[in-house]
Amino acid sequence: MSAIEVTIKELQQYSYQANSVLASKTLARAQLAGGHLSPIKGRGMEFNECRQYQPGDDIRSIDWRITARTGKTYSKLFSEEKERPVYVLLDLSSSMYFGSQYRLKSVQACHLTALLAWATKHKSDRVGGIIIGEFGHKELKPQRQQRGIMQLLNETVALHNAQLSHKKLASDNNVATPESLAGALTRLRILCKTGSHIMIISDFLNLDDKAQKQLALLKRHNEIEAWQIFDPLELSLPEISANVRLAVSDGQQHGFVSPGDANSRQKYQQHADIKQQALRQVMNRYGIRHHKISSGESLLSQIKSKGK
Fold first, then answer.
1. Are 280 and 299 within 8 A, CB to CB?
2. Cβ atoms within 10 Å, residue 19
3. Cα 24 vs. chain centroid, distance in angstroms?
4. Cβ(140)–Cβ(128) under 8 Å?
5. Which of 155, 164, 152, 157 is nearest to 116 (CA)?
6. Is 90:131 a contact under the CB 8 Å cutoff?
7. CA–CA gap between residue 2 and residue 164 (Å, rounded)
8. For the chain, which terminus, N or C, has the lower number of CB atoms within 10 Å?
9. pLDDT digit string (tens) for 21-69?
10. In 3D, which of 79, 84, 88 has the Cα closest to residue 122?
11. Cα–Cα distance, 277 to 61 (Å, whole number)
């Protein structure tokens, strides 16, 4: 597997691997409770039975063939199919294109998207979402079974690799200006139906006040899970020679850190701990399940270990 690029073949492989890790408690909690039929009788998609017409029945439900054959009026009854659509919000903004070991955060995020999408196939018929990046975003309405999954994965590969090559994604629909996390969450509020299951895959470095407000509004009527992708270097500095300095930048400001200096490592660690604590507090405040996935090791090994 490539550490910096994503292929559709790699993401398709998770259709087989998802079964082997479904026993994981962590992954099991990310599954949908959809794909079942309720006993509610009414106009739905799943035919249940016919019965003799009763006052109050919808005349559109009359079974004219049986009525003509028997001479008595019969109505069709349906069981309402309860589906719970899943929406994946995949963050492929600039901060995700970083990796100090194993693979880029963006690549790990794409692989996690595939794993979760294939795993939900066993519980829900519809998968959609929003992919955001530096060259715009892509909105995908939930579609049934494998069609929805493949649409999500194809768009994921296209946008990820296009940004890696610094090329704009050719599309007739949704590519324009960079989409913020707050903007994507706002769009999700419009797209998703009440009771949807939303999985956000991001490093959450852009979870500003606007994004937090939208997150809170989304959580009122939907189930949300946060999958934080992080690189080991973002949490702590390695102990190396005191004479080495590392160049760092947030895209605007530039500076240097000295991993060999114990005091510098301690300050760096404290700053990282504060940021992690703040993120945990946000997720706890809104009752959002928070999972952490490192880009510095195998995705499957982490999922399996979390489920033990």
1. no
2. 13
3. 18
4. yes
5. 152
6. yes
7. 13
8. C
9. 665 655 655 544 444 444 334 333 456 678 888 877 778 888 898 999 9
10. 84
11. 56
- Residue 143's Cβ-side half-sphere holds a number of Cα atoms within 13 Å equal to 11
| Distance from C-alpha of 86 to C-alpha of 118, rounded to nearest angstrom | 12
Q: Which tokens in the block code for residue 251?
A: 């895209």
pLDDT score for 45: 47
> In this structure, what are the phi and psi dihedrals at residue 161, rounded to the nearest 5 degrees?
-75, -30
CA 69, 61, 58, 82 dihedral sign is: positive
3-state SS, residue 71: coil
pLDDT of res. 211: 96
Taking CA 102 as the corner, what is the angle to CA 97 and CA 106, rounded to the nearest 5 degrees? 25
Q: 35 with 123: CB under 8 angstroms?
A: yes
CA distances from residue 148 to 8, 82, 169 in whole angstroms, order as listed: 14, 18, 20
Cβ distance 87 to 218 under 8 Å?
no
Chain length of the chain: 308
Q: CB atoms < 10 A from the CB of 40, how many?
A: 11
- Specify the pTM: 0.78
pLDDT at 160: 94
End-to-end CA distance of the chain: 26
Identify the bridge partners of residue 112 per DSSP, sorted by sequence position: none
Tokens of 96: 């995700």
Maximum Cα–Cα distance for the chain, whole Å?
96
Question: Which residue is it, tokens 């519809």?
Answer: 126
User: Do 288 and 226 contact (CB within 8 A), yes or no?
Assistant: yes
- Residues of the chain with pLDDT below 50 are 31-45, 80-81, 170-176
